[in-house]
Amino acid sequence: MSGEFWQDVPLAPPDSIFKLTAAYNTDSYPKKVNLGVGAYRDNDGKPWVLPVVKKATEKLLSDPLYNHEYLPITGLPEFTSAAAKLILGPDSSAIAEGRVASAQTISGTGACHLAALFLTKFYGFNGQKQVFLSNPTWVNHHALFKNVGITPVEYPYYDPRTVGLDLQGFKTALENAPPRSVILMHPCAHNPTGVDPTREQWKELAEVIIAKHHYAFFDCAYQGFASGDLDNDAWAVRYFVEKKVPMLVCQSFAKNAGLYGERVGALHMISPGQDTANRVKSQLSVLQRSEISNPPMHGAKLMALILNDEELFEEWKRDIKTMAHRIISMRKELYRLLTEEFKTPGSWDHITRQIGMFSFTGLNGAQSQAMNDKAHVYMTTNGRISMAGLNTSNIRYVAESVDKAVRGTL
To answer: Where is the Aminotransferase class I/classII large domain (predicted)?
Structure first.
């Protein structure tokens, strides 16, 4: 009887990105390249611990009062308040007026989950509970919302013909969506396309969202990583706050601080007034208590040190520029190799137009699969590559493989 207890549980498919990494790890081919993983690598292909994180760690561990006590349910206050200023701006009227309810979360994924959980319980959906996601979006977004009873609906975002933004399709979808719809957007370094709206396009989108009384759900996983400038990458979020768009922001420090395994993140919900913000935070606390009780301490204390210490903060900004500029240089070199050296058929301008860690190459499914199977260049079958996986040692081999895949000679 006990042996039959879980017989009806189906075997779930493995996560596509983690499956790709596992295949790469077991491959013995000497020229293999992993362009699937969403983590920064240095020019030697190694994980990079930011120098500022090393300094903050030494400072933290040398504090005689350092301990492993529980944090409050909604996290470390000196972290969440500094994180809110980072994304909303130090002069944010929402912060000054006490309209921001913040909670520390299990990185950006936890922020998205907590936000979705809050919305499913308290948001006044116009009919069916649904969220509008860009096509494509980070693959985990779909599961995050389905798991709390919110149905994902896709809106046009990426135009494969131009390898750029389908602005008109995006705006039309916003106009046709039921009033008060929840719209998830990436404020910078869109994952997986690397295609971001311009500031003027953000203004157009905000205009439609305001007219339709939609709710903006920002997932910000790459602040600073897109352009190398923390303030520049937060522009869309701050503009929407300024325009008083009903909204929330999910924030991650995995990429821009290299704290992938520490799971450092925050959720910031913008309210119309301080009383509302207090009520929202009280419910976030109730939800968080039942989910994880309270968030982890170490990474939050590291970021609190970095964000609140002027010297460490300036060093962090320099470290961010180091990462962003290396990725930008890889984009330029890949473009040069494809257009000048290999003269690969097609237009490759999108490689340098796109921004952030990822790039949609424009390779189709068959070409992407050939890159995996024949060139041992591991990438997702939708043509996405992580620019952080490129370096001066492997970029020529990758460009040559792309050229052969496009020509059908791989």
So the answer is: 31-401
- Which residue's entry shows tokens 């389908």? 166
Distance (Å, rounded) from C-alpha 152 to C-alpha 172?
18
Residue environment code for 72-102, b if the CB has 16+ CB neighbours within 10 A, otherwise e: ebbbbeebbbbbbbbbbbeebebbeeebbbb
Distance in angstroms (rounded) separating the CA atoms of residues 32 and 241: 45
Catalytic residue among 55, 171, 196, 219: 219
Give the residues across from 384 on adjacent strands: 360
pLDDT surpasses 70 at 247: yes
Catalytic residue among 48, 55, 138, 316: 138
- Span 137-188, pLDDT tens digits: 999 999 999 999 999 999 999 998 888 999 999 999 999 999 999 999 999 9
pLDDT score of 2: 57
* Residue type present at position 119: L
Catalytic residue among 171, 255, 317, 404: 255
pLDDT recorded at residue 18: 84
- List Cα–Cα distances, 257 to 106, 223, 304, in angstroms: 15, 10, 12
Please report where in the chains the tokens 């520049």 appear, as a residue. 232
Structure tokens at 391: 């370096």
Whether 219 is catalytic is yes
Structure token pair of residue 174: 């916003």
At 105, phi and psi to the nearest 5?
A: -130, 175
For residues 298 and 61, give the distance between their C-alpha atoms in angstroms, rounded to a whole number: 10
Q: Is 166 part of the annotated catalytic residue set?
A: no
**Concatenated DSSP letters for 282-329?**
HHHHHHHHHHTSS--SHHHHHHHHHHH-HHHHHHHHHHHHHHHHHHHH
Question: Is residue 69 classed exposed, middle or buried when 0-12, 13-18 and 19+ CB atoms within 10 A define those classes?
Answer: exposed
